Inverse folding.
């Protein structure tokens, strides 16, 4: 995976991004490299929405749909899980554990 940060059309508000990192940033995690991460992780909801608008993207994805899509997501994970089991990427225990964890998290969220 490429370690470079790519601008992807960011405005001057995100001038902390740069395309490559220097050797000092790779050797130790102090200095300018951490400052860039601080900028990256401090972007707020309004900033993301503004960037979506500037890039002519649909900013409605920032609003909750108020739909419960869990059943569809569980079916999708189950389907891909079966395919990955057949292709021997993962084992059945892993898929069952992931589905169990999803169900437990869903129950917590729903307050059951």
């Amino acid at each position: 995976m490429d370690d470079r940060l790519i601008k992807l059309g960011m405005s001057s508000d995100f001038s902390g991004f740069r395309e490559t990192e220097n050797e000092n940033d790779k050797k130790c995690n102090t200095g300018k490299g951490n400052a860039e991460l601080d900028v990256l992780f401090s972007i707020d909801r309004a900033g993301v929405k503004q960037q979506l608008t500037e890039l002519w993207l649909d900013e409605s994805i920032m609003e909750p749909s108020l739909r419960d899509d869990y059943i569809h997501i569980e079916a999708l994970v189950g389907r891909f899980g079966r395919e990955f089991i057949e292709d021997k990427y993962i084992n059945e225990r892993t898929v069952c554990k992931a589905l169990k964890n999803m169900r437990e998290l869903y129950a917590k969220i729903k307050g059951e």
